[in-house]
Design brief:
Layout lengths: L1 H11 L2 E2 H12 L7 H13 L3 E6 L7 E6 L1 H12 L3 H5 L1 H10 L6 H16 L6 E2 L2 E2 L8 H31 L1
Antiparallel strand pairs: 1-3, 2-3, 4-5
Length: 176
């Protein structure tokens, strides 16, 4: 998820580490704070894999800045990860949002639609956070107002996302 965010933001524009960290934290920080001890090793892994290039530029103060940009291989890797997301990227809401933040970098509308259809299929499956045996429990069957609240909020969010997915798929279909 972090590497996808790094490649995605750098696909937009070259950035130095501090600015990159701010953008990643704005996207993912509420879920998973991005510490320097996490960010910079991920950047180094991407560099070592040939996916990022580093250029030293004069800093606005005294220290030089290291500006990162994706290589052509890094751009291709981002597009591959967007076109072929892992199952967890589809089913985990936080990972889904990171994927969705950069899906526009996948240039083919039919490939974008394929990813959205995977999410739609996942959301169309009946699910719950709470079960009676193998049967998902709807909010109306719960006595606990807090658990009922979780399901009520999740249902509203899912309903809104399903509406957005169907509308977006229709618009992508007209672009094909």
């Amino acid at each position: 998820m972090l590497e996808l965010a790094l490649l995605g933001f750098l696909y937009d524009t070259p950035l130095h580490g501090y600015e990159l960290r701010k953008r990643v934290a704005a996207l993912m920080g509420h879920v998973r704070p991005v510490a320097e001890s996490t960010l910079y090793p991920a950047v180094k892994r991407l560099e070592n894999a040939g996916l990022l290039a580093r250029e030293t530029q004069p800093g606005s103060a005294a220290a030089p800045r290291h500006v990162l940009t994706p290589t052509e291989q890094g751009r291709a890797e981002l597009r591959r990860r967007l076109a072929e997301p892992a199952e967890a990227d589809i089913t985990d809401e936080n990972r889904w949002f990171v994927l969705l933040a950069f899906l526009r970098h996948l240039p083919d509308p039919s490939a974008q639609a394929a990813v959205l259809r995977r999410r739609l299929a996942f959301l169309d499956e009946p699910t719950s956070f709470f079960y009676a045996g193998d049967r998902p429990l709807p909010a109306e069957e719960l006595d606990d107002p807090f658990r009922r609240g979780i399901l009520t909020i999740a249902r509203a969010t899912t309903t809104a996302e399903l509406r957005w997915l169907r509308t977006t798929l229709d618009s992508l279909g007209s672009a094909l």
